[in-house]
Design a protein that fits this description.
With 617 residues, the protein is of the alpha+beta class. The protein folds into 2 domains: 5-351, Glycosyltransferase, CATH 1.50.10.20; 365-610, Beta-galactosidase, Chain A, domain 5 (Distorted Sandwich), CATH 2.70.98. The protein has 18 helices and 20 strands. A 9-stranded antiparallel beta sheet has the order 14-15-16-19-11-10-9-8-20. Strands 7, 12, 13, 17 and 18 form a 5-stranded antiparallel beta sheet that branches. It has a 4-stranded antiparallel beta sheet with strand order 3-4-5-6, with no helix packed on it. α2 (55-64) runs parallel beside α5 (110-124), α8 (159-171) packs antiparallel against α9 and α10 (209-224) runs antiparallel to α11. The N and C termini lie far apart (63 Å). 53% of the residues are buried. It comes from Sinorhizobium medicae (strain WSM419) (Ensifer medicae). InterPro entries: DUF2264_C, DUF2264_N, UCP014753.
């Protein structure tokens, strides 16, 4: 019998349409963790893979993260049979004399992250986690929390973590220095840009953390605390919802972009938090549809190991795409999607009829994210410029590609010396030796003019690239003006699609064009009249580089450019297989006039300024 990896997914077969379906999904996802609880129940170690932090912190991560879903499940009346394990685990984990002690926080520490889940659960269901504790266990827990909160938290969404501990201390009647709470609330406000958008810290970075962290925590705060901050969090979430819905495709997939994508359906956390906060930022049927369609999208993906434990990865187990802070327990941030379980069955989130995605039919600029969103036959594509993350592994691939797709995700490169074999999907790569390569990592300037994005960037200090990204659905157009003092080899890729066994795919490559037809998808790229000829190829990308498909094909255009100025232009397209379209592509757009593109720059808004540290009105 052939093993089907998707069958190990605890969501498989669940219709995920009703409250009971979501309750079952939560328990089905949690149950595979039970064999991995330690004897004293304070630690959950799922495998031997390491993160940059110590094993004790990783074990705490495995223990604490399910609480993001278990606590609202219990608050909504759900019957979870293992609260005794959690109460015992808290008692032992915070006891310095116990062999399963979590270890003390003595500086910026991963434990700070996981204590936010514990603070949330203590605030929401103290009868499950506080009331059962002995006096000594309570004293140890309080001492542990008070000690941890005296240290400085990272200058980003982490500041909410101390606030969640403080909310728990307030609800348990524990005295603490509330000035620390007020200072962090003020500092979090400093990350706000406008129109519902934040930065996650003092960086040019706008990713899923804005939804499943900044807004997620703000909406929980808005339910648990009644003050001016709560009012502002609600107002900002309403604004953000109008834009964030455009990150989702018709089938429930969301835009894979940025870091921490191993958290998977945490990407529905914003919609779930709206239900938790009882905030109708969109009609309830739309919120419900966005949340549940996203969960259903994950139900047939091979995202778990054979024992049902969620893997590190995105569409399949994949350590290559992970961050240094991902341990085996990290994926359980996905339990943030289960916040609606705190609401009763009569809440309008549950009683409303799911509404289909309200997707724009025209390109939509999301200037605070430095993106232009394009609906394409049910998919959603984001043309992107303005963000960067040079501190993180594969930061260029996660933040600096020209385009991101909900259906085709993106690929990471597996060998910095592999110019010949690189995927380079939605990227322009340069090489001066045929071995190593450079791609866009950061931008010197970014402008958005209507639905056109412009960026200026340098793969080397002496090489200048000016790039224009232009929507022309179902295509998008890229134009690059390159100034270089020496000849360079270049490779530019379209979207990666799933590759079949037995070389059953249809591949075509010639001068100025390349396309691949797989089992379910078509992907193509066409030159639009570059100043040098480009040769089309179909790249059989290295395995396990794409986030959704483990084996992929990428149509590319390759050429050598001389010293001086070169203009490269292409049109890129990808869509679900349609025999008529595969036989005759939709007519590609024409090459834009470079001088007209240069003129557009004068009308552009500076994206870099918008992503810079802001002020609250």
């Amino acid at each position: 019998m052939t093993y089907d990896p998707a069958s190990a997914n605890p969501l498989a077969g669940n219709p995920l349409q009703k409250r009971g379906d979501m309750q079952s999904a939560l328990l089905d996802l949690f149950d595979p963790l039970l064999p991995y609880f330690s004897t004293g129940n304070a630690r959950v170690r799922l495998d031997a893979a390491a993160a940059h932090f110590d094993r004790a912190a990783a074990d705490l991560e495995g223990f604490a993260r399910p609480l993001w879903g278990l606590a609202p499940f219990a608050a909504g009346g759900g019957d979870f049979g293992h609260w005794d394990r959690y109460a015992e685990g808290i008692a032992n984990g915070t006891d310095p004399q116990h062999p399963e002690f979590w270890g003390q926080v003595n500086g910026r520490d991963q434990r700070m992250v996981e204590l936010a889940a514990l603070g949330f659960a203590l605030a929401l269901v103290p009868e499950k986690l506080w009331d059962p504790l002995s006096r000594r266990a309570r004293e140890n827990l309080v001492a542990y929390l008070l000690h941890a909160r005296t240290f400085d938290y990272a200058d980003n969404n982490w500041k909410f973590f101390r606030i969640f501990v403080d909310i728990a201390l307030d609800r348990l009647g524990i005295d603490h220095d509330r000035s620390l709470t007020r200072s962090y609330l003020a500092e979090l406000d400093g990350f706000y840009i406008a129109d519902g958008w934040y930065r996650d810290g003092n960086v040019r970075r706008v990713d899923h953390y804005i939804a499943f962290a900044m807004h997620f925590y703000g909406l929980i705060y808005a339910r648990l605390v009644d003050d001016d901050h709560a009012k502002r969090y609600r107002e900002r979430a309403i604004s953000f919802a109008q834009d964030f819905r455009h990150w989702f495709a018709e089938d429930g997939a969301t835009l894979p972009f940025g870091r921490s994508l191993t958290y998977r359906f945490a990407c529905a956390g914003f919609w779930s938090a709206l239900a938790f906060a009882d905030l109708e930022a969109l009609p309830w049927g739309e919120i419900k549809g966005l949340c549940l369609r996203h969960l259903r999208w994950w139900a047939d993906k091979p995202i778990a190991h054979r024992d049902g434990v969620l893997s590190i990865g995105y569409g399949y187990p994949n350590l290559l795409m992970s961050e240094s802070y991902n341990s085996a327990g990290s994926p359980y941030w996905a339990f943030k999607a289960f916040l609606p379980l705190a609401t009763g069955e009569n809440h309008p989130f549950w009683t409303s009829t799911e509404a289909p995605l309200q997707q724009s039919t025209e390109p939509l600029d999301l200037r605070h994210a430095g993106m232009v969103m394009m609906p394409v036959n049910g998919d959603v594509v984001a043309l992107s410029s303005g963000q960067e993350n040079r501190q993180m592994r594969f930061g260029s691939e996660k933040y600096a590609k020209f385009a991101y797709s909900a259906r085709y995700a993106f690929s990471i490169e597996s060998d910095e010396r592999g110019f010949v074999g690189g995927a380079f999907d939605s990227m322009l790569a340069f090489s001066d030796d045929g071995i190593h390569y450079r791609v866009r990592e950061a931008n010197e300037e970014v402008l958005i003019a209507g639905d056109v994005l412009f960026s200026k960037w340098s793969p080397w200090p002496d090489v200048l690239v000016e790039t224009w990204l232009i929507p022309s659905s179902p295509w998008h157009v890229r134009v690059h003006r390159i100034t270089t003092p020496r000849p360079l080899e270049t490779a530019e890729g379209g979207f990666a699609i799933d590759r079949r066994d037995f070389d059953a795919d249809t591949l075509f490559a010639a001068e100025g064009t390349a396309h691949a037809i797989g089992a379910e998808d078509f992907s193509g790229i066409r030159d639009l009249g570059s100043t040098v000829p480009r040769e089309g190829i179909i790249q059989k990308a290295p395995p396990n580089t794409n986030l959704i498909a483990a084996r992929t094909l990428v149509p590319q255009l390759r050429t050598s450019i001389p010293s001086g100025e070169t203009v490269l232009g292409c049109a890129v397209i990808a869509f679900r297989n349609n025999p008529a379209l595969a036989e005759a592509w939709p007519s590609p757009p024409v090459m834009p006039d470079i001088e007209k593109l240069v003129a557009i720059r004068a009308e552009g808004l500076n994206v870099s300024t918008m992503l810079a540290p802001g002020r609250i009105p």
